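Request: How about a record?
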Amino acid sequence: MKATQDPTTEVQVTPADLLRMAALYLRRHGWHQGTYYCTDVPADYPTPPACAVGAIGIACAGHRVNHFSDLNPDDRHAYLDAIAVLTDYLDDHYPIHLFDDDGNYLDDHTSPYSWNDDPLCTAEHVITALEGAAQEWDRLHHQGGENR
């Protein structure tokens, strides 16, 4: 690199980073069930209590995200990756499978939406799962401080 060139400053945000940011968001601003964001605050309130997926959206975009299609393509990819990591973690540690009336699986994976809204779920469960999923992603993708 020549002395006149600016060094690259772009940092790759991993799913683990987004999951940790979402957990921190929930610790600071509160957790919510039923919708992405608490409806008891005005729609323009910048930091509403959020569900797990809503908090991932805010961690990714820096503002409310009502649907992943609202994100730019780069953020959309990161958002969906973080949700996939959380889903895999939930399958291993907090499995909830939905069944139809005949006892057949409706979904083979634990939905972070349904799990977040389960009446037995608490803010601490959600925060712990987000942090656990981040640790699991790091364990599987880092070796000697580098991405695998």
The longest strand covers residues 142-143. The CA atoms of residues 23 and 128 lie 8 Å apart. The first helix runs from residue 15 to 29. The mean pLDDT is 86.
